[in-house]
Specification:
This is WD40 repeat protein. This protein has 492 residues and is α+β, with helices and mostly antiparallel strands. It has six helices and 30 strands.
């Protein structure tokens, strides 16, 4: 009966391209599924940033002409773009410290040191070095005009090994270009020349540091803080040429605080032991300005006043030798000045005493206000049972660094407020210090631009997913072709 009914039925009309239509429909469905998966991935990756932008849109406050130092600083994004990939222009400040975006690591394949370059509009970019425990204002220094950053020439990416091409690298923060310097006679950055055209470098001798328990004659801090001997060299950044400026001999020298350029760039104040000398950088001649007391020391690279007529010293009151971190933090520093030409004591400016384990002068404003970086050391049972062997400005020692305006006649103001981040050192562009351009726009770090590894992190699973889809499609096609052949073979 079924056969008879089938004979009476009209045959079904099957289009000749039925298989092609079905394949196209299947491909459209597959493409739709892939697009849906990619869309979900994209939304999952960008949704946190979109929600944050919706909750708090980027600041639209315009920066003053020439930029300004932001009033607040934040922890950069973990994926914040590096300067070399997406330069953000001249920097207002460089920051080193601890946080999800600012902290480094010792493990292979991780950044040894991550340093934030905060632009004059408040934008964030990163400098990344393979060397660990680098501090800005020390091993990494910002040029006076904010255009360049000098540091060790060891660069590491997230999954690669470190690559050292020379002894020092100078990164142009405006263009992202990096210049590598090889074969230098000295490689420890000490200070930038005021026009940002040259660098003062210290040839660090192989002699051991001052022994524990001895009082370094330049400031009275503990072991490892000062070294004996070596020489100072001037590196022309444009040509790469270098020449010796001063032979230190057997004197103790502190590379962080013991040298300062005069505003004319032709003279250099250097502290050797307790002797404060004025050096002519053109011919290397020098004259002694003063013999400092045991508690006095040159105030740092910003020691010269804006007009170059006076030179600043810090006079320490507090523990000098074999100090715990708590004892260091109780120190008080008095700011005094000398006549830069004669070395005679200058008038008492009436500055407030500055507390801190150690301090350094970043520079002077034109109105006579001193801009000072202060350091607080870690405290607790592990740190205060015995005297510290670490430098008071060292990465592993500092718990907080602050930038203060210390005004003549009294009064101190904190210039930068950290928000959700530990700052262990600050380096500020000297031209902004001179003009007192502080309290600029302080937007939170933007979601984009992002570091290149983030795009790889997104693209790699996406490409893997597409590969899996392609393999599944090819396997299914082959399975369909094999099935009729297998069935016909079984029938015969």
């Amino acid at each position: 009966m079924l056969a008879a009914e089938a004979d009476r039925m009209a045959p079904a009309r099957v289009p000749e391209d039925l298989w092609r239509r079905g394949r196209r429909r299947y491909q459209r469905r597959l493409a739709g599924a892939v697009v849906a998966v990619l869309t979900v991935l994209a939304v999952a990756l960008t949704l946190p940033g979109m929600l944050e932008l919706a909750a708090e849109p980027p600041s639209t406050v315009a920066a003053p002409a020439g930029g300004a130092v932001p009033g607040r600083v934040f922890d950069p994004r973990v994926w914040q773009a590096p300067v070399t990939q997406s330069p953000g222009g001249s920097a207002a400040v460089l920051l080193s410290g601890s946080g999800k975006g600012l902290g480094g690591g010792d493990l292979p394949g991780m950044y040894g040191s991550k340093i934030a370059s905060v632009g004059r509009d408040g934008s964030y970019r990163m400098l990344r070095y393979a060397d660990t425990y680098l501090q800005v204002g020390q091993q990494v220094q910002l040029s006076p005009d904010g255009r360049f950053a000098v540091g060790p020439d060891a660069v590491e990416d997230l999954i690669g090994s470190s690559q050292t091409q020379g002894r020092l690298s100078v990164v142009n923060l405006a263009t992202g270009h990096t210049r590598h310097f090889k074969g230098l006679p000295a490689a420890v950055p000490v200070a930038w020349q005021p026009d940002s055209a040259a660098l003062l470098l210290w040839h660090k001798p192989g002699s051991p540091p001052i022994k524990y328990g001895e009082t370094p004659p330049f400031d009275g801090n503990e072991t490892k803080y000062g070294y004996v001997g070596g020489s100072l060299w001037l590196l022309d950044v444009a040509t790469g040429g270098s020449r010796k400026v001063l032979d230190i001999g057997t004197a103790a020298f502190d590379p962080i605080n013991s040298a300062a350029f005069a505003p004319d760039g032709r003279h250099l104040a250097v502290q050797l032991d307790r002797t404060l000398a004025l050096v002519n950088t053109a011919d290397g001649s020098s004259l002694t300005l003063a013999t400092l007391s045991a508690g006095q020391r040159l105030a740092g690279t910003g020691a010269f006043t804006a007009d170059g007529t006076r030179l600043a010293l810090f006079d320490r009151d507090g523990c000098a030798v074999a100090c715990t971190h708590a004892a260091r933090n109780q120190r008080q520093w008095r700011l005094v000045t000398l006549d830069a030409a004669t070395g005679q004591p200058g008038p008492d400016g009436g500055f407030d005493r500055v507390p801190g384990a150690v301090v350094r002068l970043a520079g002077w404003q034109r109105n006579g206000t001193a801009v000072v970086v202060t350091y607080q050391n870690q405290q607790g049972p592990d740190y205060d049972r015995e005297p510290s062997l670490e430098l008071p400005t060292a990465y592993r020692t500092v718990s907080a660094a602050n930038l203060l305006a210390v005004r003549p006649g009294g009064g101190t103001t904190q210039l930068i407020h950290p928000e959700g981040v530990q700052i262990w050192d600050i380096d500020v562009a000297h031209d902004l210090v001179l003009d007192g351009r502080f309290g600029g726009p302080s937007p939170k770090p933007a979601v984009f631009p992002a570091a290149g590894w983030l795009y790889w992190l997104v693209l790699t699973p996406t490409a893997g997913l597409l590969l899996i889809v392609v393999l599944i499609v090819r396997w299914r096609r082959r399975a369909r072709r094999w099935r009729p052949a297998r069935d016909s073979g079984a029938g015969t």
